[in-house]
Design brief:
mainly alpha
Length: about 450
């Protein structure tokens, strides 16, 4: 029996199995589709587009509070752009795979299938993010770490469950939403696996140093079985008893996100005047190298147009470089010997690192962003405090349960209504559902509800 942290690769993963059609359906309830016009993976994309969790991304801030005049990206527009880049990456890699492994064509797999898997997974990559972005993630974690009515739950849950609560993770929340029966998405196994960039739980015996897939975690303690099910179906090898290797296409989903947030956040920073036009042009020129021809920009009168042209050219170059990096390391990825971000090893990696450095200092730490983060902490903590206190009083400190608590609990969604709690036995599941409720809100919904439960505003006011 291996030690908890020993590496236990179970042979090289096989593309025929990694790309197999089939939906996440542990209970075998899905009805096979006879649809002729869309593949299983194209259906994934369409199901996501029309889902409520995806629509909510339109009112979740990407980086900046939404200004009145200048367009900047929301989580929705960012996700659509990441998906577009992901499709290009997937189709290009798919063409290579079909040439290298002719048996894939015999299985009916096309390059468009690979592109569709990456596009769908990329479309969902931020679906688990709470209101106010990363500040919202930190606010949820900090509530359970530091707030009296957060800390009080530690004695009521298992250590592995507590680790989930004090380290809220948008990736794990996304996985939870995508496999949720309530959302009814029933995505394909391949899309779910490509979405899961960090195939491990929050509490592990020891991280494997240098492995990108170990940086964060990708599913909660009560969903290890869900990931184990899809990993077994797709032949994804285990890294050790607690963790798995990535599905190879997860590297492309990650790269699509890395490309977009680096380049697009820079463009937004220039739009809002946080980075000068000259700086933005210079940083993008570092990626374009000899393809940068400043004289050709003169035919575009507006600086925004010039920046947009260079942005498009830069993304095109980065896509080509990432595809080549994937091809170079494809066998090592299947074997489990490669586990890095592809954008860290491409020729443009130094130029991207420079963009990220500028973005950290001039964009992510700018006053509008910091003000949004500060507001996010107040709103998320305030909501958790109000609802968590009422839940605690109902079940554990019953002598304190008041009319105020009763009114607060009636504001919760149906699955958390007081009428459904008569047989309450699982504290962790209860807290998870509360976090689902709050993390699923849009920025505006969270702010409006916070004002109401705190008495700052009344309904209709």
């Amino acid at each position: 029996m291996e030690s908890p942290h020993s590496e236990v690769f179970l042979g090289m993963m096989q593309w025929e199995k990694l790309l197999v059609a089939g939906r996440f359906d542990p209970e075998n309830r899905a009805i096979p589709s006879n649809e002729r016009f869309r593949t299983e993976f194209e259906r994934d994309y369409d199901r996501i587009i029309f889902s409520a969790p995806f629509r909510n991304l339109q009112d979740k801030t990407q980086v900046f509070p939404l200004p009145e005049h200048d367009f900047v990206h929301t989580r929705l527009t960012h996700s659509l752009e990441v998906s577009s880049v992901g499709r290009s990456l997937g189709k290009s890699v798919g063409e290579y795979l079909l040439q290298k492994y002719p048996n894939l064509q015999e299985e009916g797999i096309t390059s468009s299938d690979v592109g569709a898997i990456v596009a769908a997974a990329a479309l969902t990559h931020d679906i688990g993010n709470p209101p106010f972005g990363h500040a919202g993630e930190d606010a949820i974690s900090d509530f359970f770490k530091f707030h009296p009515y957060g800390i009080v739950w530690q004695s009521h849950v298992k250590p592995t469950e507590w680790e989930d609560l004090i380290k809220f993770e948008g990736n794990a929340q996304g996985f939870r939403m995508l496999v949720s029966k309530e959302n009814g998405l029933k995505l394909s196994l391949a899309t779910l696996a490509a979405f899961t960039k960090y195939p491990r739980p929050s509490q592990i015996f020891e991280k494997s140093k240098g492995r990108r897939s170990q940086k964060k975690y990708g599913f909660y303690a009560d969903q290890i079985g869900d990931y184990a099910y899809l990993a077994e179906k797709l032949g994804i090898s285990k890294l050790n008893r607690e963790c798995w290797l990535r599905h190879p296409l997860a590297f492309l989903v990650e790269a699509a996100d890395d490309i977009c947030y680096s380049i697009i956040d820079l463009e937004d920073g220039c739009t809002l005047g946080l980075v000068t036009w000259e700086e933005g042009i210079s940083l993008l020129a570092g990626i374009l190298k000899d393809k940068y021809q400043p004289e050709k920009l003169l035919k575009y009168q507006k600086e925004a147009q010039q920046l947009a042209v260079l942005r498009a050219m830069a993304i095109s170059i980065l896509v080509e470089e990432v595809v080549q990096a994937f091809i170079t390391h494809e066998e090592a990825i299947l074997q489990g010997d490669f586990d890095q971000a592809l954008t860290d090893i491409i020729p443009s990696a130094p130029a991207l690192a420079k963009i990220v450095d500028i973005s950290i200092h001039q964009i992510y730490r700018s006053k509008p962003v910091l003000e949004k983060e500060a507001a996010g902490f107040q709103v998320i903590e305030g909501l958790l405090e109000v609802f968590s206190t009422a839940i605690n009083h109902k079940f554990y400190q019953t002598e304190l349960f008041s009319g105020k608590d009763r009114s607060i609990l009636r504001l919760l969604p149906k699955e958390l209504s007081t009428g459904d709690w008569d047989n309450h036995t699982n504290t962790y599941a209860l807290l998870r559902t509360l976090i689902d409720f709050i993390s699923g809100m849009t920025d505006k919904h969270a702010l409006a509800l916070y004002r109401r439960v705190k008495g700052i505003a009344l309904p209709g006011a």
